[in-house]
Amino acid sequence: MKKFLYLIIILGVISCQIDEIDLYNSPDYIAFTNAEKDTMVISFFMLGNLDEYYCPIVVQHIGIPSDEDKNFSVSVVQEHTSMKNNSYNIPASLKFQPMSKLDTFYIKLTNYAELQADHAIVCIELEENDQFQLGDRNYRRIYIKVNDNVAKPDWWTTNVERYFLGTYSDTKFRLLMEIVKPDLSNTQDAWIRSWALQLKNYLDSNPTQDEDGSLMSVTVKI
């Protein structure tokens, strides 16, 4: 009976030692929080016709949080990147903040004319270094689709045409975004009416040709 008791104690000690090794000596891994299949879409137009945008990219540290900065690295996957080289910029030095499981860095994206007609892709991937190994293979690479396209939004309904903004055109939508800078996260009728009134005030003072050659107008009544 004593032999079995000693054996259980010894196995328990070994088990604790193994757990400690796994816990304290396990490597540090890094991964994106977006899966490779989940393409990020950035529209300069929907952001308010910006010339530049700092796109946030979130990374996660898998392992024991460190009390010191840890360097990590990303690179551009050129064969899957179609955006002009001078239109995106990744910080030269990237550090994971101490005692954190998540951190964010920013890719600077610059708008250019061709993005109004088509999209471009920036593909980046994490690189292994002396401080981080790579995590789940599905979270090592991300694709960012960038455009400046304009299209009729779902909220520009028949009622919106009849009572507020009139017939839709890409030109009118671009002017609305440029002059009014609406918050498109809130598209209730009261807000749309206020946008239409602001656009009406602008058009009254600045007659503007619509894309069909007629003078642009809205249907909102004061």
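Above is the first protein from milestone M3; the second protein from the same milestone is given next.
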Amino acid sequence: MIPSCFECGEIIGDDTKADQCEKCVENETWKCASCLDLSDQLYDKLATSSKSNLHWFCPKCENIVLNADVSSPNILTTIEQHLMTSFAKFEQELLDKVNVSLQRKEENDLLESIECRLRKLEERPVVIEEFQRLEHKVDQLRCNMDEAVVEAVQEALLEDKAEEAEIDRRKTNVIVHGVSESDAQDQTGGSMTT
């Protein structure tokens, strides 16, 4: 059976702007947008809305829905299900927004951390250059100290050799007590003791 608008009889095709009764879905009762007194733009807006704002009941179902006893268990179950579904959608949307917000915060924190590390790295070349200069100065001091130490050791060795030579030379000397020293010079250029 081909569906048609129950009011004007227009055949409802895939590209026809129309709405089906929400209650008697099996009977396929339809009403076209012009009979609903909706412009094409308004129909498109309502039909594509994420809140599903386009609802329609045929006159028979409208009487049942509007005159229904609210205390009826079927109506209460339907209302409860609708509320639970709406609440679940709202809760999911809220969770999605919170997750997006948390993700953005994490991304911002990460970017801030990276920028901080980059600033520290940019400052490091100065520190590294200073360290390298200090290291060079320490090496120079070490080198200078090594030369001074070598010179001091060589001088001490020379003094030790000179002292040993003096000790060897004095081994053959004779010391006489009670005799005054002469003013004459010996052949080596020193004063002669008598």
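Note on the second protein: Helices lie at 40-48, 59-66, 73-170.
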